[in-house]
Amino acid sequence: MALESIVLVNLGTPEAPEPAPVRAFLEEFLSDPMVVDYPTWLWRPVLAKILRARSERVAKLYRSVWLPEGSPLTAGTRRITDALRDALRATTGADVTFAFRYTQPALTRRLAGNGRPIVVPLFPQRTGSSSGTIEALVGDRAMIRRIEPDEPGYISALADLWQQTVGHNPPEHFVVSFHSIPVRYDRAEGGQYRRDCETTYRALLARMGWPEDKATLAYQSRFGPEPWIGPKTAAVLQKLPRAGIKSVAVATPGFLTEGLETLEEIGMRGRKTFERAGGERFYRVPCVEAHPVFVRSLADALIDKVKEVAG
């Protein structure tokens, strides 16, 4: 049976680490009512001020992590796409591509062709502002295959990356950090996002055999004045050395690809926060990306998805 075409969908990224493309990306992203749900008449003037004030500063942050081949998020998404295509080529020859919800290559263009592709949101923890906005845009134009928050291949890949990172010198504490969302968003969704994050957290600790009293689930990447779910990752990293913890590892399972939030916010600012508070050894566990266990698991799941649809 020939496998349907597959589109992996990530959030998106500026096309260059310069103010104009950063502004264009932020404007498209923050104009989505599923991301910021304030009334348009109220939000548009506020957004205009944010774009004027933040575009240059955010561009500078992107420059600190930019790769020779471009955005880390684009490079990582391409690696997953290429690895999945290779995993499926021998038996199915599936057409595997990627798209972004915001900026290019646009998801809407991938959905404009013939056929009904399988769309895979690269967000294991579900919420309206990530996986939800992808599914809303897709509608009935494609089949959705979600990555579950405790999918075995995903969890095994995370555990292996942990082991590769810390080797035989594990830290005293492990912080598992997810992107935060506003408290009222999580309440409106019945706590689904928080439950998914907790599911991943517990599954990962169990797979690693790591004690829960030496781990903390935390949340990062907040903005704006309203309450967001916590505890805040930066605050956790600041408090740990004061409690006598001198070594820490941080994983970011909610991000399947590297990006500003993992490389700069955790790898640079998070490390600095921990060390300035008295910490001595800081590990950052890489994102899953094209880890072979994750890719093989996803390939098998997609073949099963087609069989299920075919009946």
What does this structure look like?
With 311 residues, this protein is of the alpha/beta class. It folds into 2 domains: 6-148 and 290-310, Rossmann fold (3-Layer(aba) Sandwich); 152-284, Rossmann fold (3-Layer(aba) Sandwich), CATH 3.40.50. Helix content is 50%, strand content 12%. It contains 11 helices and 8 strands. It has helices spanning 19-30, 40-65, 72-89, 107-110, 128-138, 152-166, 183-188, 192-208, 233-242, 260-276, 292-310; strands at residues 6-10, 96-100, 118-121, 143-144, 173-179, 215-220, 247-251, 281-284. Strand 7, helix 10 and strand 8 form a beta-alpha-beta unit. The longest helix has 26 residues, at 40-65.
Give the uncertain stretches in residue-range form. none
Mean pLDDT: 95
| Major β-sheet strand ordering | 2-1-3-4
Structural class: alpha/beta
The largest β sheet comes out as: 4 strands, parallel
CATH class of the largest domain: Alpha Beta
What is the count of DSSP helices, taking H or I runs of 4+ residues?
11
| Percent of residues in β-strands | 5-15%
User: Could you tell me the number of beta strands?
Assistant: 8
Radius of gyration: 19 Å
Number of domains: 2
CATH topology of the largest domain: Rossmann fold
Secondary-structure element series: EHHHEHEHEHEHHEHEHEH
